[in-house]
Design brief:
Length: about 425
Amino acid sequence: MPVHKNQIIEKEKAVVDGIELGPDWNRMFEQRVVFDYDTTGLDKVTDVEGAESMGWCYQCTQCIPVCPINQAGGEYGPRKIFRQLQQGMDLFTHDDLWKCTTCMNCLRVCPKSVDMIKIMPAIREEAVMEANVPDELQEVFENTFEYGNPMGESPRKRADWVKGAGVEVPIMKDKKETDYLWFVECYPAYHTRGHDTSQAMARILTTLNVDFGILGTEEKCSCDSQRLAGEVGLFEEFAEYNIKTFNKYKFNKIMTTDPHALNALKKEYPKHGGDFEVLHYTTMLAPMMDQLDLKKDLNIKVTFHDPCYLGRHNGEYMAPRNIIEALPGVEMIEMGRCKEQSYCCGGGGGGMWLDGFMSDHVNERLSENRVREAVETGADVLAVCCPYEISRFEDAVKSTGNEGKLLVKDIAELIDEAMGN
């Protein structure tokens, strides 16, 4: 809000502690109170259920330096959005609505609990109902609805990856009862590099004599990222379907490869009647590492990227590290931004499918920023345990000119390699 001339107070001369000050040096401004601002844009946001905390911001700016979008040159963060809303921005139609990856780093440091993890999905839901959605995201919603996965792949091919596992992967339709129901999720089921992780995981579970089974073609997307991107109706439909499918079988725990699926199954599905014990594969495997015959010395330096939805969202930091440190011939090197302060790969909150959109709003992709940090550690391998990160970081290795300097591998692949496979 500009300052009008009539709000400027200055004297032709002023003497302060014996020093004479001219008008340029004694200038003051009338106090501007909050009701001098047009709060229409802010009120429109805080009137939406779930977005009330946007009005709690008192502009301390602690969120700005930790926001991954801001660090990538995106001029972003809750405080900046708050100021724009004070100045009349309509978040419901503005590009800023789609930049947030819901990484939760701002909430971690916010003294007023301004919760972008609730605010953004709530406003996005309104935008989705008004068809104000980036084209890339709309295509993902349509693919998910029609095919059960965001890539638009045939549901009949969801379990095709098992053919390359080299071990039997039981299907629940045939097995009926198991100890661990493995919720594979879409990227590990369809993406080529996801296949590598899933096949490695199947061999690890078999070696450990874990009683497990997968849903195969009965499984559909957990839809957590779609929910965070505003497609709540789609999420509810798929949650109800998956819960109904789970209830057809007997099992003790659900294990998932994907932190985003973990978040959905653990925190959101209980709201729809699906109350199950759910854990990420690293949490499951970490206590079992001494049961594996790890015969191959890997002789590598490894740095690890904490997935936002495993770490900040669900509090698991040590299991992946315990696994890495149990691998023979591995030197673990931490990046500067790690654990609670870890950076974001850019894939959360719908960001996985918005790289084209985001290219107009940042100086570099978040994955590129992170890869540069990993390379600076001198590590040979960037270890990950979220299926979004394999493809994002491998692309970033190429786009930053670091091919041959850094490999990206899932922790399951490293275990499998240490087993001699």
